[in-house]
Amino acid sequence: MPGLSFDNYQRNHFLTTRGYGQPTATSTGTTIVGCKFKGGVVIAADTRATAGPIVADKNCEKLHRLAPKIWCAGAGTAADTEMVTQLIASNLELHSLHQNSQPRVITALTMLKQHLFKYQGHLGAYLIVAGVDPTGAHLLSVQAHGSTDIGQYQSLGSGSLAAMAVLESHWVPDMSKEDAMKLCADAIESGIWNDLGSGSNVDLCVMEVGKDAELYRNHLTPNVRSEKARSYKFARGTTAVLRESIRDILDVEETVITFGSASVDAMEVDA
Amino acid sequence: MSDPSSINGGTAVAMVGKDCIAIASDLRLGNQSLGLANNFEKVFQFGDKTFMALTGLASDVITLKETFRLKNNLYNLREEREIEPQTLANLVSSTLYEKRFGPYFIGPIVAGLDSKTSKPFICGFDLIGCIDFAKDFIVSGTATDQLYGMCESLYEPNLEPEDLFETISQALLNAVDRDALSGWGAVVYIVTKDKVVKRTLRTRQD
Amino acid sequence: MNGISVDINHLKKGEVNLGTSIMAVKFKDGVILGADSRTTTGSYIANRVTDKLTQIHDTIYCCRSGSAADTQAVADMVKYYLQMYASQLPFDEKPQTKIAANIFQEICYNNKDNLTAGIICAGYDKVNKGTVYSIPIGGSIHQQEYAIAGSGSTFVYGWCNENFKPEMEREECVDFIKTALAEAIKWDGSSGGVIRMVVLTEAGVERLVYYPEDYQK
Question: Do B197 and A79 touch (CB under 8 A)?
Fold first, then answer.
């Protein structure tokens, strides 16, 4: 990526040699899946983000838009999946403007794999790329090192084993859109329940040939937090305050007064 | 405790209330277990209703505070307006990701109200700039674990500014009391449409 | 690393591996390439229907073994260079297999410190008919009557040596590859799935797939 700076690298490396470890970045210890159906493709993801053993975000978005009809689901280092996706989305738009045609899934995939290969696996992005373009519906995946796979159904992330178990047992050729959506949602749910790195809700995106892509944010919410039995509001004044300063923010209103025609006449000096 | 972001200690938290936000931090600066200062504020203002808290390695906290002050000033000059919280969040994200392979050891929080709509906005980041958009609260720093526990139990949506102040204060105070590296005083900012209230809290001094 | 004792078996952590059984065999009308379809990450089968037979030109293919990322990247590069080369040829002429094989060799040799790629390049061209080149890790090149490679190949070196015949008939050659790969798959844990083949002759390209129930005795 142009503009990456290694200014702190030596310092951080020195800190490492002095026995200081690396802090944990947010990772999407994730379940993501994709599945083709007759006339389209669907991808799905869970919504849990983790930092080590801590759940950092209970409802994060792992479905990224590369182009209006090309979406991808990301697993691995959260910042990498987000940034690599944004970069490729930008380049893909420039490319499609330059070519004066709809962006293709294979183009997105090639840009991703060449970028990730260049970084030799140091960018921890594992993506399922799917979409529709003038050549039809496509489902592909890329791994951090830059290798790609094609398939009728795919799963990636820490919950990929749980999801793949569902896909392998229930997938059939030429499914309907509804069946594919159900299969993907079930596969993600399997990850949510059986994988510790995955949890919360199911996000889903359907891309059908000849139609706009549809994003189903929180398609399933099997982990709604129950209403608290009682309120833990504190009485006002509970907290002891040493000092207080208040800064009032005033809206400045500006009124323009226009004069009547009489004054306009008065202005005309050479009348 | 042997990672750079927990050498100096320090903790911050932000919460969303009804048409308001609150952002708070402790005041401790230490070197491992030795306390050095009790006036190290970790919340910084960028515009009338836009705030950022920075926890982690103190040298990086100061470096980034100054970096963002510079970037914010340039933004103000170029755009002739104040930066929105959303915009600041994306600025923070890209600034941190620029250092993907040699990161700053910090955990920033951005909180504020949109200048036009007055809609509350809060978000947190990991050290390489992954944004965590939250509707309720964001925590950061050495008392992160404790704060998650406090906030998950104390927080409720749509609190009035005064009630939000009590909730965020109690969450922070009780969390830092169980963290050896945080404490030594605390500040809370409550931001509403027409005023910003800053309160310094009375806390334990051990 | 001192350049003499080079660690050739390094795979970056978590890297997708083509622990593979691949081969290519010359026969009377051209050449046939064969491969299993398993890709692994550690002990997990990341893909059980992989296509390790990659097209480089109309009737030039390669079998990939080693790191999936590395071999795909190298194959993409060769494909690109060969397109550039082919566009400069007179109309109706196609690149010879040896050109492709030598581009593979060049890339594999120049980047040998960073690549884990064992490649068999085989193809049919009008001048040389069927040809097989092996480009193992390190970037050397060997023209052979037949080539086997990948982790599963160790189990069938003897069998292939004993049973290979020059100028086989098509069906005989398919059987030769099928039997060899079936045996390689049987004994090698990192190989499995279906057996894919590509037949390259004057007539063009023909793809074959054999499922476990077809090749397991």
Answer: no
CATH code at position B64: 3.60.20.10
Contact B11, B144 (CB under 8 A): yes
DSSP string computed for C22-79: EEEEEETTEEEEEE---EEETTEEEESS---EEEEETTEEEEEEEEHHHHHHHHHHHH
Tokens at residue C95, please? Answer: 């690149």
| Chains B and C touch each other (3 or more Cβ pairs < 8 A) | no
CA distance C88 to chain A (A): 25
Mean pLDDT of chain A: 93
Predicted structure pTM score? 0.93
Total domain count, chain B:
1
> Is B206 a domain residue?
no
- Measured between beta carbons, the chain C residues lying within 8 angstroms of A155 are none
Confidence band (pLDDT; 50, 70, 90) for C1?
A: very low
Q: Which domains are assigned to chain C?
A: 17-215 (3.60.20.10)
* Lowest-confidence segment of A18-27, B22-31, B45-54, B141-150 by average pLDDT: A18-27
Range of the domain at A200: 28-220
**Residues contacting B73, CB < 8 A, separation 6+:** none
Does residue B168 fall inside a structural domain?
yes
Interface list for B 92-151 with A (CB within 8 A):
96-105, 126-134, 144-145, 148
> Considering the domain boundaries, does residue A141 fall inside one?
yes
List the single range of A139-148, A206-215, C18-27, C98-107 with lowest mean pLDDT: C18-27
Which residue range(s) make up the domain with B193?
A: 4-201
User: Nearest-CA distance from A212 to chain B in Å?
Assistant: 26
B40 inside domain: yes
For residue B53, give both structure tokens.
């808290």
Q: Residue A102 domain-assigned?
A: yes
Residue from the list A117, A121, A151 with its beta carbon closest to the beta carbon of C73: A117
The reply to whether residue A240 touches residue B201, judged by beta carbons under 8 angstroms, is yes
Single-letter code of the amino acid located at A262: A
ipTM of predicted complex:
0.94
